Amino acid sequence: MQPEPAQALLEIRNLRVDLPPGADRAHAVDDVTLTLGANEILCVVGESGSGKSVMARAVMGLLPVPRVRVGAGAIRFGGEDLTRLPEARMRELRGRDIAMIFQEPMTALNPVMTIGRQIAEVLAVHTRATERQARLRAAELLAAVKLPDPQALLDAYPHQISGGQRQRAMIAMALILGPRVLIADEPTTALDVTTQAQILALIRDLQRERRAGVLFITHDFGVVAEIADRVAVMQHGRVVETGPAKRVLAAPEHPYTKALIAAVPNLAPRPARPLEHAPVLLALRGIEKTYRARAGMFRGAGRTVHAVRGATLALRRGETLGVVGESGSGKSTLARCVARIVDADRGEVLLDGVDLRALSRRAMRPYRRRVQMVFQDPYGSLNPRQRVGDMIAEGPIVHGVAREEALRHAAELIELVGLDGRALARYPHEFSGGQRQRIGIARALALGPELLIADEPVSALDVSVQAQVLRLLADIRDRLHLSMLFITHDLRVAAQVCDTIAVMREGEVVEYGPAAELFAAPRHPYTQELFAAVPGRAWRHPTRDPQPA
Amino acid sequence: MSSTDPPAAGFWRRFQRNRPALFALWLLGAIVAVALLAPLLYPGDPFAIVAKPFLPPFGEHLFGTDQLGRDVAAGIARGAMTSLLIGIVATVCAMLIGVVVGGAAGYFGGRTDTLLMRTTEAFQTVPAFIFAIVLVAILAPSLRSTIIAIAIVSWPPMARLVRGEFLAMKNREFVQACHSIGMSDVRVILRHILPNCASSIIVTGSLMVATAILIESGLSFLGLGDANLMSWGYLIGAGRTVLRTAWWVCAFPGIAILLTVLAINLFGEGLNDALNPRLRDAA
Question: Residue A297 above 60 pLDDT?
């Protein structure tokens, strides 16, 4: 048995949450027993669909009843069973004793209310504070979550501040009444890695200071390594393993935990491969792209954003070049300039010495075959009204291959990416995220490209699926001898697949070199900052890292 | 966005669950049947004088006769074809214009967009019905000019809708994937974007038929319809002077318009619910 914490603050006993008939399983949460002690951070880890968020919402009494509701069990807090409380009593507890932070601070905040008013509103609902008192207290809290210039922020609207600042404001709002339990549902998932590191540190500090119990929902073992005192691993609605974080991370017992941990890529670069003598396939010289918000008839000049400024990179045959950066760094725009989905304003995109940028659309067509792209969003990148087979075959058909032959080739490709031939007759909605990404890869391969551009191909996937897709990409690259331009925000992922890495910030390449060197000794301060921010960077997991073949 | 919907799968099952829409479908079927069978049910000229004037309804003549002794029921039955024909043809024309203009504006953006949308707005500044009257007056009343007038006043909303859908679609990754494969714009538009906007276009189009029928009735009421064609609006217009003494001359064509427009609207709503189930769940 796990060691029970000294004073249990929140006790979940045999909790079962029922799903409506016709859902993929009967119970979202099935017989879960967990205890959250005062002054500890309990991380609930699981992949999408594991029931972790539903459980958090059950504690808050925020389930979408009557479709989803508690079927059995109890949630004990301060001598009361939360599952049986009348709504009025639950409202009293919510915010005052149990508070919640959400994943996406932009949608969790009301866009037409100032930050100050929203924080003050929490006080107005639960106490008799006057407006002046509320404002003062809100300013104090904003200072406590280490936001600069709290007075100015009180009058700011959510869209006027950054994502990290919004999340801090959300935390301030959650903490204003000094709750004993804080539920954080993936609070850093939507944030950039450097911001994530700051928010994690903040949550940790505030929790220690206030001796609160934090129920922290996450899918990321890196975050667990960073912040957790204890861990509960969930799979298909059940808790499969609980224990102190150190023990679970170092010596997981349950096979599922082991598999999950093994799927997290270690922060160590893949062994260097001898590529110095391979010919250069793609050379980028001084790529620049500026977006201008369109000037209206009466509005004069619009806003300009320098998405890419003077990027110069080279990619050898068989090499994988990783472009790493945070959101807004211009990495995706750079990839789209190479694929000519957007046209660069200046610079040269040399594929085997031919400048693609100078080509007309017609002249570009033969080169399209040689450069193909895998997209980030497995849901948005496939046409929902087209059969998988037609989708994969369409590229070759457009380029003049006979339909029968293109379909035959599609059948080969779908097996190459590890799917059944029957998939060809189905529509995209019948597949999971990972399977869709495989279809996207098959579509890109259909034209027989030499250069594969992968734009965050795994960032929308669960960690175990992520590992599979990364392995597939590496395998295909080696078998077909492809060169790959790999865009990612995740240094762990980059470490797995990239030979060379370029770090981008605000449209500029700030550091560029072999992965091994860059990981061993990052030179640019921003690269160092990125490495420092990787959650759980010190943690090396016990199981051997599955290296892509 | 219904990005993960099965294309048309379960469409009929969802449609059937909507009782009013199912009722509307039956009603529409009946109206179409009357329109098609009218030449058999009431052979001869609907303008012909067949009995004494002002015979009350439900006697020898189902809906009575008007001030000249023409059979109202015959007029309604023969007028159904006119109303439906004009409603459908005008809507198809308006949809074509709207989809082309809106699609081009949304897909190509920039100057094309500005030019096309400002033009669209110019059309929208004139109230639709007044504009239609002016057009028919200029073109001289006839079946063709009624259709042209209705099409010209009806396409702007369709263009705006299609432009919005295209704008949302063109930045989706699957459209970018099409570009990176090297497809032509025409292929991307016809094979990839348009099928994904089809449900909204169909729903809006079905509701436009109802509006078109109303405009046509209005024009005929004012005597701007085709003088050789029987239509519901004409019947009401002709009967309005005797509304107090012979209510049935106006009432029955009015009920016919009401039922048809109601049926089309309910059917359109049903289509909307069945084609865009996500929207309905969210509501």
Answer: no
Q: pLDDT tens-digit profile of B197-223?
A: 988 898 899 889 989 999 999 999 898
- For residue A66, whether the previous peptide bond is cis, meaning omega lies within 30 degrees of 0, is yes
Please tell me which residue of chain B has the smallest CA distance to A371: B180
Structure tokens at B278: 């996500």
B196 touches chain A (CB under 8 A): yes
Suggest the residue from B3, B181, B191, B194 to mutate for an interface test with chain A (most A CBs closer than 10 A): B181
Give the three-class secondary structure for A262.
helix
ipTM attached to this prediction: 0.76
Measuring CA to CA, which residue among A5, A186, A167 is closest to residue A103? A186
Rounded Cα–Cα distance for residues B278 and B276 (Å)? 5
Residue B179: both structure tokens together: 């570009």
**Are A381 and B173 within 8 A, CB to CB?**
yes
Q: What is the DSSP letter of A426?
A: S
How is residue A145 written in tokens?
């979550």
Closest alpha carbon to A455 in A513, A372, A529: A372
Judged by CB atoms closer than 8 Å, whether chains meet at B4 and A429 is answered as yes
pLDDT at position A544 over 80? no
Average the pLDDT over A303-329 and give the result: 90
Give Cα separations from A182 to A209, A219, A301, A482, A525 (angstroms): 13, 18, 47, 48, 35
Q: What type of residue is B139?
A: L
Residue type, A301: A
Alpha-carbon span A451 to B280, nearest angstrom = 43
Alpha-carbon distance values, A511 to A159, A277, A515, A527, B137 (Å): 31, 22, 11, 7, 72
Which of A298, A368, A381, A385 to mutate: most B Cβ within 10 Å? A385
What's the mean pLDDT in A394-405? 93
